[in-house]
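During data preparation, a discrete fold description was generated, and the record follows.
___
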Amino acid sequence: MEDWWKKAVFYEIYMPSFCDGNGDGIGDFIGITSKLDYLKKLGINGIWLTPFYRSPKVDNGYDISDYYTVDPDYGTMKDFEIFLMEAHARNIKVIIDIVLNHTSTEHRWFQESRSSKVNPKREWYIWRDPVNGNAPNNWISFMEGPAWTFDEKTGQFFYHSFAEQQVDLNWTNPEVKAEMFRVMRFWLEKGVDGFRLDVINHLKVTVRFNDNPWDEEVGEQIHCYDKNQEGILEVIEEIAAFVHSYPDKFLVGEVSSEDLNELKNYCGKGKLDVVFQFNLGSIPELDVEKIYQQIKEMDIAYKEDQLPTLFFGSHDMSRFITRFAVDGKEEEVAKLISTLMLTAKGVPFIYYGEEIGMRDLVIDDISKMKDVQGLIAYHLALEAGKTEKEALDEANRNGRDRSRSPMQWSQTTYYGFSNVEPWISLPNNDVSVEKQIKDPASMLSYYRNLIAFRRRYPALTTGNYVCLQLENQLFNYKRKYQDVMVDVYLNFSDETKRMDLSPNYEVVLSSRRDLSSPPREILPFEAIVLVKKG
């Protein structure tokens, strides 16, 4: 039987921002459950939930203080169980984010670890003596600033690859590994359908602490020894074997790299099912040459047991409708990208709100910023002598609040997300589900049609590329399964392109017009999909 996830369309829900069901301004399980019919109608058959465990939320839930409980902001364990049951009743699978790399400094394990050098949990974390009165090495955290913090009580430094409050677990310790496998077992036995593994290539599995080299040309540290360590792939294989010992479970990894040669090492038979393709998904601006090149290289590099992922948005990056914007053509370009995500070879991940064209949130006052990464960038900019305005610009550029504003359900004061002021700022626009749900030309209607089309034609879930080419900004690929060929044209230019229709092709989809008569050209920023049978 073919793995279900190969045909799935996933939808990422950022927990605090999707729907507030209990009226406290924070999204929760009651709210998500109330929107399952919406997701079912959209065509979603897989949900990825960001962390919902108990947390002080220095990094909005990626700093976990208890892996075995639901944070009260999101409801109760019963609320989670009802949500999971209702999702499964609609044939929607649920994967949950899990952070195996680090815990909150408020986790009781770390509180015990830092209490004394002889505490049984001391070696659950990474402690090192000062070197000449300084940090043990030159490592910089992935949120900027030092990766080591001195603990006055015990006279040693603890290591954190991200924020100071996100302290790394010591994966060289077999007790840590055993406990994290118990965590995964707990949720698998609750019935979840798999995991999204956060920053999984950061697990510290060796005792080497060499200084990282410095790139003089760009003025940045090269992260050689604090990720992708020797032995990490063996640990990945252990995790995969354990999770896959439960039937029909799925693993997607966040491997913090844009290097396809690194990414491909983490997925395939005996490893993670897929990894997020940051080589494609994190492209900073609209560049069809780069998009084409990455898709072509993935097709060449990936073996038969490997499948890429297709995404351009997440809770960590600018919304692609904003960053790929072409003056006056935002929605046209967004429809092009969504067509690519749902018809190219790979497993698509839609980020909540993409289906209605939600834009980036811009924070106008640093006191309103919630994201720790943005706040760190702001303070570092001030320390570097930048003005308040320049520092705020840095915070917006580096922060992640921009893609975390509340889901826009209706044209009410709080967009139907809540009946009270939300936990994070609201954007100023009139985009909403309510405005689009009955409009056949809307972004939402287009997503529904695309997903239904993807499900209708196995060539789009199983077929290989027969053709993959780019000419004068016209991206074209053909995918075939059995006797059906699907032919996709994506015009990334502002010029009309001629198209010669073969008589045995049927035009089934356009992103810009109805199909009352067969088109003879492709409009600027238009997606056209054709089907040939026999």
User: Anything to note?
Assistant: The longest strand covers residues 464-471.
